[in-house]
Each structure stands twice: as C-alpha cells, then as structure tokens.
Amino acid sequence: xxxxxxxxxxxxxxxxxxxxxxxxxxxxxxxxxxxxxxxxxxxxxxxxxxxxxxxxxxxxxxxxxxxxxxxxxxxxxxxxxxxxxxxxxxxxxxxxxxxxxxxxxxxxxxxxxxxxxxxxxxxxxxxxxxxxxxxxxxxxxxxxxxxxxxxxxxxxxxxxxxxxxxxxxxxxxxxxxxxxxxxxxxxxxxxxxxxxxxxxxxxxxxxxxxxxxxxxxxxxxxxxxxxxxxxxxxxxxxxxxxxxxxxxxxxxxxxxxxxxxxxxxxxxxxxxxxxxxxxxxxxxxxxxxxxxxxxxxxxxxxxxxxxxxxxxxxxxxxxxxxxxxxxxxxxxxxxxxxxxxxxxxxxxxxxxxxxxxxxxxxxxxxxxxxxxxxxxxxxxxxxxxxxxxxxxxxxxxxxxxxxxxxxxxxxxxxxxx
Amino acid sequence: xxxxxxxxxxxxxxxxxxxxxxxxxxxxxxxxxxxxxxxxxxxxxxxxxxxxxxxxxxxxxxxxxxxxxxxxxxxxxxxxxxxxxxxxxxxxxxxxxxxxxxxxxxxxxxxxxxxxxxxxxxxxxxxxxxxxxxxxxxxxxxxxxxxxxxxxxxxxxxxxxxxxxxxxxxxxxxxxxxxxxxxxxxxxxxxxxxxxxxxxxxxxxxxxxxxxxxxxxxxxxxxxxxxxxxxxxxxxxxxxxxxxxxxxxxxxxxxxxxxxxxxxxxxxxxxxxxxxxxxxxxxxxxxxxxxxxxxxxxxxxxxxxxxxxxxxxxxxxxxxxxxxxxxxxxxxxxxxxxxxxxxxxxxxxxxxxxxxxx
Lengths: 417, 358
What we know:
The complex is a heterodimer of chains A (417) and B (358).
Chain A lengths: L16 H41 L5 H5 L1 H7 L10 H17 L2 H11 L3 H12 L6 H8 L6 H10 L6 H6 L2 E3 L5 E3 L7 H32 L2 H16 L2 H12 L4 H8 L15 H25 L4 H8 L4 H29 L3 H6 L7 H10 L4 H25 L9
Antiparallel strand pairs in A: 1-2
Helix pairs in contact in A: 1-19, 3-4, 4-6, 5-6, 5-8, 10-11, 10-14, 10-16, 11-14, 12-14, 14-16, 15-16, 18-19
Chain B lengths: L1 H20 L3 E6 L2 H19 L2 E6 L5 H9 L6 E5 H9 L20 H4 L9 E14 L9 H4 L9 E4 L5 H8 L7 H5 L2 H12 L5 E4 L4 H8 L4 E5 H11 L3 E16 L7 H11 L2 H7 L6 E2 L33 E2 L2 H20 L1
Parallel strand pairs in B: 1-2, 1-3, 5-6, 5-7, 8-10
Antiparallel strand pairs in B: 3-8, 4-7, 4-8, 4-9
C-alpha cells in the first residue's frame, strides 16, 4: 500500500537493469549491423546507385543548358511558334563561338541532332565561322546556312534545352515531345518500342509456358525415380545448366540452320525437299527454341525440390480410397506442386524478359527483344538517355507484373526448396 | 640477421619491378579475326621488337560505347582503337578522342610529307587512317554463277535463295539504290531526300523475306560456307582470306562496292601517350601499311605504300587485283559519306530498326 513510485530494478553494479538491457540490445544490433554492412555498402555502391543514376539519366539531360547557357536563357520564354528574334540569334552566335573554343560544339550538335536529323553538320559547320559573324546576327547566320531561318531548328533547340525532359520517356513509348511541350505520336514508320515491349512480354510468356510443359514431367520423373537413377538423370539437367549460354546457343545454330543437323535429317527422311528446307533459326521460332532450352533448368530445379518434399503416401492414400490415377494426381498431387510452379514460372519469366544474348544471336528480325534495343542504344547510337528510359519502362513493367503475380498467386506461396 | 636478409630481398624485388616498368605496355583494340591478325603481324610484332614495349591486343565489335564509358568514368584502359570513319568524326566532335598532331607522322621514303602522302580525307582531326576497306557482295562459285552486278544481289527471281546483309542501314541503303539503277555519284544526294530513303527501303523490302542478318565481320564467310545464304554482303578482306587462306570457292563482286577508311584513334586521357603516339606513327609508315596488305586484302591509306604491296603471305597470290582501290574494281564504286551518316544515322537507324521489326 505504498504510494511512492516503484523503484527501478537495479543490476549488481547499481545501474538500472532496463538501461543495461537496452545497452546490451544496442550492442547486439550494432554487431549485426557491422556484419551486414559490407553487403549493404556493396549493394549501395554497385547496385542501387548505378540504377538510380541510370533512372535519372532517362529524364535529366543538362548538356544543352550547360553548354549553351545564353541560348537556353533566350529560349526560356519562347513558345515555339513565333519567329525567333534578333536577340535569340545573338545569343546563339555567342554560344556557338564559346562552344567552338571549348571544343564542346560536337556534343551540342549531337544532342540537337537527336531532336532533328541533319542538325549536326549545321551546328559544327556554322560554329567554325561563328567568330567572324557580325550583327545583325540573324541575317549573317542565315547567310552561312539557310537552314537557320527554319523554325524547326529553333524548336529542336527548345526541346533540347529542357534540363528535365520527358522527351526520352515519350520516345521510349513511341511518342514525341514538341517544342510547346505537347506530346504526339511518332510517325508510323518510327513506332517500334511499344511493339517490342509487347513482343518481349509475349516471347517471355511463351517461353515460361513451354518450360512448364517440358519441365513438369521431367521434375516428376526425377522426384519419383529411385535415388540412383534420378541422380544420374539430374546430371542431364545440370550439365547444360553449367554450360555457357553462348555455347548452347551456338549449338542450336548448328542444329537448326538450314544446312544443319535437323534439316539434313528432314531431307534424308523425305519430310522436306532439299530446296525447301525449314527456316527454324534467325527468326522468332529460333529464339523460342533456344531460350526454352536455356531456361529449362530454372523451371526443373524448383519444381523438383518441391516435388521431392511431397510424401508419396498421400497419393497412395487417395488411391486406396478409390481415386483413379488421374483424380489422385489432379486433386492430391498437383495442388501441392503449386509453390514450385510459382517459383519456376516467375524465375523463368523474369530472366526471359531481360534476355539479350540469345535473341541477338538467333533472333533474326522478328525474334528481337527490347533488351536488344537497349543494347543498341548503349553501344551503337550512344543515346544513353533513351536506353535509360527504355530500361526504366522495362523495370516498371516487371514490377507491375510482380505486383499482379503477388495478388494472384501470392509471393508467400513461392518455394525454391 | 634474418630481418636484414628480408629487407634486402624486398629491396631487390622492388628494383626489379621498377626496371620492368621502364618498358611501356599499351592496349590496342581492333575488330578481331583475320584483320587483327594482319595488324599483329605487320605492326605489333615489329614495334614490340624495336622498342621493347608490350602490346595487349583486344577485340571489340565497333562503336564508341566502350570508349565513352571509359572516358566518362575517367578510367581509360585502351590506348589505340581501330574505328570506322563516322565514329572517328563523331568521337572527336563529342570530345571522346585525343586530337592528333599529324606532323609527327613519318614522311614517305621519297620525302613526300605525310599530309600529302595519305589519301585525301584520310587524316581527320582526331585520327590516322591505316587502311581502305570496302563493303562488297560475294557468293560461292561452286553453287552460283553468272552474277553480273549489284542488281543481281537484289534479284530473287534470277538467283533464288537467302541473302546475308549487315544489320545496319549503313552501306545497305546505298547498295539498294545502286541496285535500283542510281549511279554512284547521285546516291547521297538522293538519300538526303525522303523519297530517296523510301526508294532504298522499298528495294530492301523486295528481298526482306530472304535475308539473314549478320553483325560481326566473321559471320558472312561462315554463312556462305554453311550454305545458309546464296550471296552475302561482307567486308572484302574477310572474303579474300576465306578464299585465298582457306581455299573456299568464294568470289567478290566489286560492282557497287562502298569504300571506307579504318582509322586509329586515342581515347581521351589514355595513359602512356608517348608510347601510344610512337606506335601510331610507326604503324602508319609506308612500309608497315604495305606489309599489312600481305596479310589481308585491305588497301593501304598511303599512296606510297601501293608500289610496295606484293604477294599474299601464301607466297603466290598477287595482292594488287584484290585491293578495293585497284583500278578495275572502282568502276561503280562509292566512297562512304561520313558527313551524311554522322548527320542522319540516328534517324535512319531508328527507321531501319522499325522496318526490321515490322
């Protein structure tokens, strides 16, 4: 019945037990944190920051604004429809002289060329003579190249002068941002990316389905055979898995090409005439066959590990209660393998959606995927901003699909082993 | 006592290491296959023997992306890169390449300065040409005969079967127009108009269903040898090597060939600049360029090398008639217009890719 507050429980050395406990907990947390910190640093440096940097490249491009500050300022309030003024021409000439001196005119020219083909030589050749130009700048610049009177060139510069631009994302989705900020469709003959995104999804989905159809019986066989035989068979699954993708793809080229092993057999058995051999490679069919083969182990292994854990007594019990083989399989066995199917399907699908090397080698013209175009813009056209935008759209698609998958199948149902 | 020995050992090791460092190591990057072999034999080996330096030879597939990533990351590993003309111009424009002082290049044996000795246009600001190569079309004489000119390449009725074509609009659009009857001199004027581009694509359309696309220079001879294609466009040197070196019955048709330079460039901020420039000057002197032609059928970029070109390294094939620059081969030839491609490649690539994917 004391009305004083309960005194804190003290440890042997007189400090409150609660504080000691907190300190001990903190130490343990710190230890744990120190243990994982190398991994965290590694992830931050080599995974998260490059992705972030690349995502930013898709909408951030300050090249024109940095190199051509006067023109950028002069264009800031211009709406893209009126004739450019003398002041704008003067700013442009000033910038051309500066960039020529700094040797950055090429970068600027390349940037504007992305908005308007043919602008590159206009910029580089005019910059060579810009230092000798005199006012009025409009007339003298047009005298150098007639094209400078063209409002199109100014609209292209206006589009390039935006530091934060949706232009690359618009392009990644077959649209185009005009000088006044509005977004319109690209001309028909340049619409390609949406088509490729859809084709990428379609190919990945098909590959996933084929892997499931082929992998399920194999995994079942592996899981039900006696250990000695199944270990032997397992080697047949693992050996290709350990072989380089390049080697396997090249092997498929040797198998499928028109003078290849399969076609020779077809001709030998009279299935095809010698001059009408099947084209099974350098097209979508080739991509599907090679990718299905390469990704098959990603389906078989999770399925196998799940099936291995299903007690055979369940099916026996079902049969003893009068179920036919089919009912026992379909109502008792198959539902238990769903976590394996889920794991295998999402593994194969997500690996397939970013696949690059196999379509590049055997895809021909209709078996290309969006990753081949990301590669194209990284390596050939050097338009890293567009590559970043395409990559981000692809990442977005994957995340959305993952979310849908989680809602339908449930990610907790996935089981890798 | 032991400590002293250890210290002595370490000291010797360090001295030895610094002594070894005195010789420079540079990395030279090129396109691989028979072409790189010709450079190794004609340039790398004699230079290494002369200077005691080491060359690491790497292969790549063209383009500037590796150069761009090395320069932007501030970690340049490559010293010398063999590039196409449009890439040399573009890389220079974008500040990815070191400007080269052409006055250090050796003069011709008769005293003609390098500037006059190189073929016109062979020395742009940031590069030094080493060879003239060309895109041609070729076929297997044991299976195909009676091919007259570039028009036959696009004639599926006369010569049914698959065609190998580089997956790139460059050279293809020009060849398509020439096959459509446009004289070489008018090709680029026409391609600068939308109608001209449409016409070129329409011509390509006529064989699109029968095309096998290739990307690396080693592929077309392989496609021909495999019987995968009846005719293919290719780099002339690769076909020559398959024919003269491996005895394949391949024949080059020079009608409608498209000439181009290959050039040495130095990525901006490359290490060992002195050794690098020394290598470039050494490898592009008159004798070295002529030597290279004994290994592959690409023409030297110096006029004075022409007279020194002799036999192929098999000791019996005369090289001169196999050079793209040989008089007889120039009848209907086109020189690649780098300015046109630097200006229009983004748009034409996009259109080409869209056309491919349709």
